[in-house]
Design a protein that fits this description.
Strand content: 15-25%
Structural class: alpha+beta
CATH topology of the domain at 5-276: Beta-galactosidase, Chain A, domain 5
Domain Glycoside hydrolase family 65 N-terminal: 8-262
Domain Glycoside hydrolase family 65 C-terminal: 703-759
Family: Belongs to the glycosyl hydrolase 65 family.
Radius of gyration: 27 Å
Largest sheet: 9 strands, antiparallel
CATH class of the domain at 5-276: Mainly Beta
Number of helices: 19
Helix content: 25-40%
CATH architecture of the domain at 5-276: Distorted Sandwich
Protein name: Kojibiose phosphorylase
Keywords: Glycosidase, Glycosyltransferase, Hydrolase, Transferase
Distance between the termini: 32 Å
Length: 775
């Protein structure tokens, strides 16, 4: 197995949507699903542009399924070379994770037995995020033939809207299932045409009014008998016809520039910028080399390598690849949805996953991307203020599901309308999660300039919201009618995760206010004026933090997930799937666990993960054991957190099982829904489980700490982390560890297996494990 590639070795229409997700190419600016260029019955193609949302004829905002730049048809003597019109003799696709390139080779046979090979390569350029490239080559193997290649841009795109409620057990085949959905229209054509061989397709989102422009340039390989530029109401196409001799190859190189009116620093009109993008590309060789060089720079900072287990090494690099194509460090107005830019799942909305699960990866490998993701929360702060006002409170409350404006976009019902969601009303902890991310970024990077400018208004305005949202109960404060990360239990009071993180949030906001009063009084005065902060509000935050109750059983030290949780009916977990993950007990599902102690995903355990220094090892051990036995892991972010905390409390075997579940959630499709899009939180959780879990990596106020405990099948674990503006290369083994501090400046003291180690810049320092670890 090559740990740098993911391969499809045969054509199977039942697995096609799964590979469409896996083979997504992107660059943070956009993502394009790995559909066949010619599509097939049951295909679910999609290109998604970060930040391009629309709500026309949809109940909530959708991430728009934008014009398709891949669409290509090849005809040999009048027969379309596709998986249904011709016979597939062989098929192979390979995603090169190192360069972000998807390559394909399919051998077709016509009805008379004549054989043709179709080869393609595609990528979304990391060197120029406005550029996408496709190479198409066709070879005649047996006889002379007429070959036509038709390639262009398809602007007739629709989003999936709602699946009707069918009787239980109803299933549709791969060729019908997407046809059963209602559809939403979000784009209206505003013009198509060609000028000097370059085609342009323009459209506008109907409700949000964003202008999109695609420019198309097609270069031919071979001398055509005919070349025709064609335009339709919602499409542009270049059609080229060739006469092929046996063994001869012809093809096209396709360059597509994409621009929108919402692009940061947009400048010229979208159509002009899109045409300029394709004009500055010399040829595919130059574009490919620039793309490869950009990817090399990304991997040098972000690679997470396991030596000794190629399957795990592949899974980790697959996770990192999808994380790298999900973020755009140049755009602080967009964030990452729960399915990244790889599918329509969750309508492209942004959840707490970004701050809690994804941000650590970017924070320690791509700090510019981390900064941009936090910029999105500052950009949408006005929308968060509207959410708070809608709920009768001052300040700012971030929505459970966010899109372009920062207003609440969470649907109230399931996709078939049969189940009611209460997350939009009650899952308030996302606001504290954002504050946690702000403080974590400032701590790891040392970027006080960010903290005092964009970070402070977020902390202050959200702290103000919490003070109003808390209710008095005697001398204490409580948070009633909330929902914690668990999500199986709604309308609860004093969720431990929420209350504890809110207390932490209030304390941190007051601490930043105090620092600014001393270090940046003029800037604090400016914030106070713009936010209408009174001189006493910081003290109110501290008072609320002191009074806010966090449920704990005084007899045994267990953290009660919420008031009355210990009284819920205990329903034992008795069945597990082939991956060792629990099944729902008979008669239970996502909507029928309210009266039980069953947990969907980490709640208290997540709290132990985020604030490890706040809880003793004994407390973590007790709570992990108690809640692990009750958790069904019905969220893809669950296993990785249990892996990390499990390692902290000595449950190494369970940690390896949970790590595998997270690492292979998409490669093995172990939740059965990879076709909807990548589980990007699981990808980030997998990286965290490898580095923070098996690598024993922690970044604290006191500095970096490493206590590696590698699985027996791993020989070494290698990764890099950014700390206060410099990079540390880490090479961990079972009995030794090596560290290299890159960049000028003083030496750094880190803690390895509990002992301080001085690491001078640009030297490799080797540390031997103590005898207690080796034995």
């Amino acid at each position: 197995m090559n740990p740098w590639t993911v391969v499809e070795n045969e054509w199977d229409p039942h697995r096609a949507n799964y590979f469409e997700t896996l083979f997504t190419v992107g660059n943070g600016r956009l993502g394009t699903r790995g559909s066949l260029e010619e599509r097939h019955t049951g295909s679910l193609p999609g290109t998604f542009l970060a930040g391009v949302y629309d709500a026309f004829d949809a109940p909530v905002v959708d991430l728009v399924n934008a014009p398709d730049w891949l669409v290509t048809e090849v005809f040999a003597d009048g027969t379309r070379l596709d998986t249904e019109s011709a016979t597939v003799l062989g098929h192979r696709r390979e995603l090169d994770l190192r360069r972000g390139v998807l390559a394909r080779e399919t051998k077709f046979a016509l009805p008379d037995g004549a054989r043709f090979v179709l080869r393609t390569e595609r990528f979304a350029s990391m060197a120029d995020r406005d550029l996408c490239c496709l190479r198409v080559r066709v070879t005649a193997l047996d006889r002379t033939a007429s070959v036509t290649i038709r390639s262009g841009i398809d602007g007739h795109r629709r989003n999936l809207e709602r699946l009707p409620a069918y009787p239980e057990g109803t299933e549709f085949g791969y060729d019908r299932k997407w046809d059963k959905w209602a559809l939403s229209t979000h784009l209206r054509s505003t013009g198509t045409g060609f000028v000097d061989g370059v085609g342009t397709l323009e459209c506008r989102t109907i409700d949000s009014g964003i202008d999109l422009a695609y420019a198309l340039r097609v270069e031919l390989s071979g001398i055509p008998e005919r070349r025709v530029e064609q335009r339709g109401h919602e499409s542009i196409t270049v059609e080229s016809e060739f006469a092929l001799a046996p063994g001869e190859t012809v093809g096209v190189d396709k360059f597509v520039g994409i621009a929108t009116s919402r692009d940061p620093k947009a400048g010229a009109a979208p159509a002009d910028r899109a045409r300029a993008t394709v004009a500055r590309v010399a040829d595919l060789k130059q574009a490919s080399a620039a793309n490869a060089a950009a990817w090399q720079r990304l991997w040098s900072a972000s690679d997470c390598e396991v030596v000794g287990d190629d399957r795990v090494a592949q899974a980790l690099r697959f996770a990192v690849y999808h994380l790298l194509i999900a973020a755009d460090p140049d755009d602080p107005t967009v964030s990452i949805g729960a399915k990244s830019l790889s599918g329509e799942g969750y309508r492209g909305h942004v959840f707490w996953d970004t701050e809690v699960m994804l941000l650590p990866f970017y924070l320690f490998t791509q700090p510019r991307a981390a900064r941009a993701l936090l910029g999105y929360r500052h950009h949408t702060l006005p929308g968060a203020r509207e959410v708070a006002a809608d709920n009768g409170a001052p300040g700012a409350r971030f929505p459970w599901e966010s899109a372009d404006t920062g207003r609440e976009e969470c649907p109230q019902y399931t996709s078939d309308g049969s189940g009611r969601f209460y997350t939009r009303e009650e899952e308030l902890h996302v606001t504290a999660d954002v504050a946690y991310a702000v403080m974590r970024y400032a701590e790891v990077t040392g970027d006080d300039a960010y903290l005092f400018t964009e970070g402070a208004p977020i902390l202050f305005d959200t702290a103000r919201y919490w003070v109003r949202r808390c209710e008095p109960e005697g001398a204490a404060l409580v948070l009633r009618t909330v929902m914690g990360p668990d999500e199986f239990h709604s309308h609860v009071d004093n969720n431990a995760y929420t209350n504890r993180l809110v207390r932490w949030h209030l304390e941190q906001a007051a601490a930043v206010h105090h620092r600014m009063a001393t270090e940046q009084p003029e800037l604090l005065a400016a914030h106070s004026e713009s936010l209408a902060l009174s001189a006493t509000e910081a003290e109110q935050w501290l008072d609320a933090a002191r009074r806010l109750r966090v449920p704990v059983d005084p007899d045994c030290g267990l953290i009660e997930q919420f008031d009355g949780y210990f009284d819920r009916t205990v329903v034992p977990i008795t069945e597990w799937d082939d991956n060792g993950m629990p099944r729902f007990p008979a008669g239970r599902d996502h909507l029928t666990c309210e009266d039980t102690s069953l947990v969907k995903q980490p709640d208290v355990v997540m709290l132990l993960h985020l604030l490890p220094e706040e809880y003793s090892l004994d407390t973590r051990r007790q709570n992990y054991a108690f809640y692990e036995a009750r958790t069904l892991h019905k969220s893809s972010l669950s296993p990785s957190i249990h892996a990390i905390v499990g390692l902290q409390v000595g449950e190494a075997d369970a940690a390896e099982r949970y790590f595998a579940r997270s690492a292979f959630v998409d490669l093995d499709d172990n939740q059965g829904n990879t076709e909807d899009g990548i589980h990007i939180a699981a990808a980030a959780g997998t990286w965290q489980a490898a580095t923070h879990g098996f690598g024993g990596f922690q970044a604290t106020r006191a500095g970096l700490r490493f206590s590696p405990v590698l699985p027996s099948s791993w020989e070494r674990l290698r990764f890099s982390v950014c700390w206060r503006g410099r990079r540390v290369r880490v090479d961990l083994g079972h009995q030794d560890a090596r560290f290299e501090l890159i960049g000028d400046g003083p030496a750094e003291t880190i803690t390895v297996w509990g002992d301080p180690v001085r690491v001078p810049p640009n030297e490799i320092v080797e540390v031997r494990a103590p005898q207690s670890v080796v034995s």
